[in-house]
Design brief:
By secondary structure, the protein is α/β, with parallel strands linked by helices. It has a single domain (2-137), classed as Rossmann fold (3-Layer(aba) Sandwich). 36% of the residues lie in helices and 26% in strands. The chain is built from 5 helices and 7 strands, in the order H-E-H-E-H-E-E-H-E-H-E-E. It has helices at 2-29, 48-55, 71-79, 118-128, 145-148, and strands spanning 38-42, 63-68, 86-90, 103-108, 129-137, 153-158, 160-166. It has a 7-stranded mixed β-sheet. The relative contact order is 0.17.
């Protein structure tokens, strides 16, 4: 799947920026964007969430890790900023390279239906972050996150279904 995103990386922002910004707006409206010091953007793509946060002054974080399995996407994300708090990482969510509960929040927007092992990915996000925000496409036939982890709850819908988990298991 990462190879497919390598091929579409150059056109991703043109095709999806408006839709993604709408999703980020929903997260912001729910009070789940900004105010976190250590942020993981799991499946960050070209770094649009980072751009959204900076544009709106929600960049009071100390560290922002932009993680994606696609080298092409990470290359574009890395070109967005010379901010030393911004750290681009090529890795799969299912094997997130971080210690337990290091991140205050992990966002995984528009990634759920592309994951090879959703259960493992969710477990990893819950392992490395205190708060987890996940979206699932509305036409998806994949199991929703609450089916894999009862601590995750649906918080609403805007283009995607939104889910959140907070606190320790």
């Amino acid at each position: 799947m990462a190879e497919l995103y390598d091929l579409t990386a150059q056109s991703y922002d043109t095709l999806y920026r408006e839709e993604q910004y709408s999703k980020y707006g929903f997260i912001e409206e729910k009070g789940l964007l900004g105010g976190y010091k250590r942020v993981l953007d799991a499946g960050c793509g070209t770094g649009l969430l980072y751009s959204y946060m900076v544009e709106r002054g929600l960049d009071d974080f100390r560290i922002y890790v932009c993680l994606d399995a696609s080298e092409g996407m990470i290359r574009i994300a890395a070109s967005r900023s010379s901010d030393p708090r911004f750290i681009p990482v090529v890795a799969y969510i299912e094997n997130t390279p971080a210690v337990d509960k290091y991140f205050d929040v992990a966002y995984s927007v528009t990634v759920w239906d592309n994951l090879e092992d959703r259960s493992r990915a969710l477990s990893e996000l819950r392992r490395v972050a205190k708060v987890v925000v996940v979206t699932r496409h509305h036409k998806s036939r994949s199991e929703p996150p609450p089916a894999l982890d009862g601590a995750i709850r649906e918080i609403g819908f805007r283009v995607d279904y939104f889910y959140v988990a907070s606190g320790d298991r």
